[in-house]
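#struct-help
A.M.: can someone run this one for me? Single chain, 57 residues.
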Amino acid sequence: METVIKLLTGLLGLLMLAGFLLPPVLKLKAVSLSLVVLVGLGMAAYEFYENLRDNHD
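D.P.: on it. C-alpha cells below:
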C-alpha cells in the first residue's frame, strides 16, 4: 500500500511541476527555455524513478 501511495503522490507532483513550468514555455516559445524545462522535468522524473526503486523505507 505504501508503494501505491508513493506512486500516486509522485505522479501528482510531476504533473503539478509540469503544469507550473509549461505555460511560460508555451507562451514564450523560446528554444533555450524549453530545453531548460525539459532537463528539469527529466531530472524530476529520474528522481521519482529512483525513489520508487528504493525500498529502504
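A.M.: thanks! Helices lie at 2-28, 31-53.
D.P.: also worth noting: The mean pLDDT is 93.
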